[in-house]
Design brief:
mainly beta, 3 helices, ten-stranded antiparallel sheet, 343 residues, Jelly Rolls
């Protein structure tokens, strides 16, 4: 009987070719893929400690009379579930995904996120309605201070670069650029600002219910949800100032000032909370946080200043404030402002 011998390939000796070139090729391809992923999807695929924003500074001293923040310290401040988890001692991003700080300004996300971005995926699950299935977390941007303030003047500069015309039912005339004061939590605070329908507004939110305190039109035009959805100026730096203070009689005054890019500060609205007008809810009297709210738009931020004021709204230690151009900030450096500056 004829026998066949099985040949074990392992025992066959062949000349060995160098695989050094193959390894170099694989490494180069992996590097190209990594760069492409970074450009296409952002930083979601990197360990968080490689890109997360860390400010090396102690928490704000409540005895300091003012805090100036000019966004000169670059990085990304990520949204966190708790204030204590924030990597900034000055700010807590409660909603909106990321506060991006670069080129001397802060900003929300711009446009739609890539499909596989970490915040697109997160908001696609937790709040798809208001964020267009997670592609626009900036639609519900909420930035809160980590320091509490009693009688306070807070001001900052905003530049709207784009509207996000979401189909959410919450995209409506109440949206805008707003400064919150006496911020206890999501359900209790005052806010003052400007709305997409061209009006200036002061409102009180108490235990989840909004109470209008004052409102007047200040920008021309007729608002229409589809054809003319935002009457606020775009690609222009707008200054907003909210002054909130408790009077001797225990009532609370809220004032709103607005500044156009080449104009002076103008007081446009004022309201008082005596505890009887707005659903018989008591005034918010305790020192609390301040905050920034923007809705359904891409926004840039610059030159935020928080100052303590008296019970008459006066601020003897306050410096005259105005918009500092980015070029001047870079030329003067820390003499004008660092990431945060105290006075």
């Amino acid at each position: 009987m004829r026998k066949f011998m099985d040949t074990d390939p392992i025992n066959i000796v062949r000349p060995r070719a160098s695989n050094f070139g193959s390894r170099i090729f694989i490494v180069c391809m992996l590097l190209i893929i990594a760069i492409w992923l970074h450009l296409e999807y952002g930083n979601f695929w990197l360990p968080s400690e490689l890109y997360v924003f860390h400010e090396e500074a102690p928490l704000y001293n409540p005895l300091d009379p003012s805090l100036v923040y000019t966004f000169n310290e670059g990085g990304i401040l990520n949204e966190t579930g708790k204030m204590t988890e924030s990597t900034s001692p000055f700010w807590w991003l409660d909603s909106g995904g990321e506060l991006v700080i670069a080129g001397g300004i802060g900003r929300t996300f711009r446009g739609a996120l890539p499909a596989m971005h970490r915040w697109r995926l997160e908001y696609g699950i937790t709040n798809p309605m208001d964020t267009d299935n997670g592609y626009h977390p900036q639609n519900i941007f909420r930035l809160i201070s980590r320091s509490r303030w009693d009688n306070v003047r807070v001001e900052g500069f905003f530049c709207i670069t784009k509207d996000e015309l979401s189909k959410s039912a919450n995209r409506n005339v109440s949206n805008g650029l707003l400064l919150m004061s006496r911020y206890v939590d999501h359900d209790t605070f005052y806010y003052a600002g400007i709305r997409v329908d061209g009006t200036a507004v002061i409102k009180k939110k108490y235990h989840g219910i909004y109470y209008p305190m004052a409102q007047i039109p200040i920008f021309e035009g007729e608002h229409e949800q589809v054809k003319n959805p935002d009457l606020l100026p775009h690609n222009e730096w707008l200054g907003l100032r909210n002054e909130t203070y408790t009077n001797i009689d225990g009532s609370v005054n809220v004032r709103l000032f607005v500044k156009r890019e080449r104009g002076p500060w103008e007081k446009v609205l004022e309201a008082s909370d005596h505890g009887s007008e707005f659903g018989n809810t008591p005034p918010i009297l305790t020192p609390e946080y301040i905050g920034i709210r923007t809705d359904f738009m891409d926004v840039e931020f610059d030159n935020f200043r928080i100052e303590r004021i008296s019970d008459t709204g006066e601020c003897t230690d306050c410096a005259t404030s105005s918009f500092v151009p980015r070029l001047l900030k870079f030329m003067l450096g820390d003499r004008v402002a660092s990431g945060a500056k105290r006075s």
